[in-house]
Write a structure and sequence with these properties.
- By secondary structure, the protein is of the alpha+beta class.
- It has one domain: 2-Layer Sandwich (Nonspecific Lipid-transfer Protein, Chain A), CATH 3.30.1050.
- Helices cover 31% and strands 17% of the residues.
- It contains seven helices and five strands, in the order ααβαβββααβαα.
Length: 138
């Protein structure tokens, strides 16, 4: 493990520090959701959030064939299999189960390997909170 990764404990979503904020909490969950969906070979997915500051705009998931998943906030220097570009609000809505990649259509731009793109919804999974009933104060 090199210093370009947040580290195995963060990359696998077990511990996400407050300093990285909600974007890393989301991407950290994505890293642990369904790694075998595209892991016939090492797979790299780059998430791009154009509206965020440059330092928080790009995140990479590196999925190894043995099932290991690393979340990178610095370009790991590997060939990217799939680029996912959308705004953070849309991605959070997908993750919370309020919508899907398919329903969002042009708001989620997928560029790259078609097989990986076809499985992106499986890769993203759902937040553990997505299955909770909505609780509204009366």
């Amino acid at each position: 493990m090199s210093n370009r990764f947040l580290g195995p404990e963060v990359g696998r979503g077990a511990k996400i520090t407050k300093e990285f904020g909600s974007i890393s909490a989301y991407v950290g969950h994505a890293a642990q959701s369904e790694p075998n969906a595209a892991a016939q070979q090492e797979t790299v997915i780059q998430f791009m959030y154009p509206e965020l500051p440059v330092s928080k705009r790009s995140w990479w998931l590196v999925v190894e064939t043995e099932g290991g998943v690393d979340l990178c906030w610095i370009d790991p220097g590997l060939n990217v299999d799939l680029y996912v570009s959308t705004d953070l609000r849309t991605m959070i809505s997908i993750w919370m189960g309020l919508t899907t990649v398919r329903k969002e259509g042009a708001k989620v731009i997928l560029t790259g390997n078609r097989e990986v793109a076809a499985k992106i919804q499986v890769w993203l999974g759902l937040s553990p909170f997505a299955i909770e009933p909505k609780r509204v104060a009366a």
